[in-house]
Specification:
Structural class: mainly alpha
Order of helices and strands: HEHHEEHHHH
Strand order of the largest sheet: 1-3-2
Radius of gyration: 29 Å
Distance between the termini: 82 Å
Helix content: 55-70%
Shape: elongated
Strand content: 5-15%
Number of strands: 3
């Protein structure tokens, strides 16, 4: 979703500063499935303000610069609804964790086990946090997405638990075979060099 729509979406829950909008997009629940670069939020808010979709109010703060708080206008509410009525594109999933596992045959098996265990602990923590998320259950849409998130984390956690040991065993076996192949190649190279040196010595002696 574009950053303009994300700003409108956050403001639909109440007024917020640019910093608070960014924080809302980093933390749960929105942070689990949306993101916006911090540097893109303020330009987006400026354009939204120029278009009359949000209004900004400067609030004075003691010993600090004024804080500008934005709120959604009626035009902004209509713009948000219009943006949300567009059929969504395909989900894009990016994961450094999965890239590492994709290339796991190049890495030590112990390291792979460590990052899998760390990720399982992370998923367990997310699930525990979501169990206590009473505010997520206030509205049907939030409740539905909350349940979807729980199902996703449980499925990922179950997969890692069920396949962790087998995956590690495969990596260990692959590493063992590669080391055996490397040893055999090393021996063959050494033997070939030895034969070449012997032949050269014979030639020299013969001469």
């Amino acid at each position: 979703m574009d950053v303009r729509t994300l700003c409108l979406a956050v403001l639909s829950a109440g007024e917020a500063s640019g910093y608070e909008i960014r924080k809302a997009l980093q933390e749960a629940p929105l942070g689990h499935f949306q993101d916006a670069a911090f540097g893109s939020i303020y330009p987006a808010l400026l354009r939204l303000s120029d278009e009359g979709l949000v209004s900004g109010t400067a609030l004075s703060q003691e010993k600090r610069p004024d804080k500008k708080v934005y709120s959604l206008t009626s035009s902004g509410e209509r713009a948000l609804r219009k943006a949300l009525m567009v059929a969504p594109g395909p989900d894009k999933f990016r994961s450094d964790f999965l890239l590492i596992l994709f290339l796991a045959d190049r890495l030590p098996p112990d390291f792979i086990l460590d990052i899998i265990d760390e990720r399982m602990a992370e998923y367990e923590a997310h699930l525990e946090e979501m169990e206590d998320c009473g505010a997520c259950l206030e509205h049907p849409g939030k409740r539905f997405v909350h349940g979807f998130g729980q199902a996703w984390y449980r499925a990922a956690l179950d997969y890692l638990r069920e396949n962790r040991d087998c995956f590690a065993a495969e990596l260990v076996e692959m590493k063992r075979r590669q080391e055996a192949l490397d040893d055999e190649t090393h021996k063959e190279v050494g033997s070939s060099r030895g034969q070449a040196m012997a032949a050269a010595t014979s030639v020299l002696i013969g001469e």
